[in-house]
Amino acid sequence: MMKNTIALFLIINLVFLGFTKAQVPPPQAPVCPRDSINFISCSNVFRLSLILINKQTVLPCCTLVAGLDAAAASACICNAVRITIFNFLTINLRVNQVLRLCRILPPAGFRCA
């Protein structure tokens, strides 16, 4: 009788535990698919952008990130920013401005890390 009870208990556990969901792994951080050496001209934009950001000043960045999705473009521009700017308080604002001028919507909740 005890063997039957244990077997029934194990079968019920297997059935109910089979219905549980596995937790989805967190998404990976976006990676820039292009070479960082190409973004030197884009990093110069951020040096000049202390004064003014407009379509003419961000044109080098826009041509480099053309054809990339928003996450990859954001990662590429963040890499360019890391090369030049050490004032981390204004980085996210400038990256979002550059992405918008390039007609790329930044991913929701995106922050340069």
TrEMBL record:
InterPro entries: Bifun_inhib/LTP/seed_sf, Bifunc_inhib/LTP/seed_store, Hydrophob_seed_dom, Plant_LTP/defense-related
Keyword Cell inner membrane among record annotations: no
Signal sequence annotation: 1-22
Similarity comment: family membership: Belongs to the plant LTP family. PEARLI1 subfamily.
Species for this entry: Arabidopsis lyrata subsp. lyrata
Pfam families (alphabetical): Hydrophob_seed
Key words of the record: Signal
UniProt superkingdom: Eukaryota
UniProt name for this protein: Protease inhibitor/seed storage/lipid transfer protein family protein
Residue ranges of every copy of the Bifunctional inhibitor/plant lipid transfer protein/seed storage helical domain listed in the record: 32-112
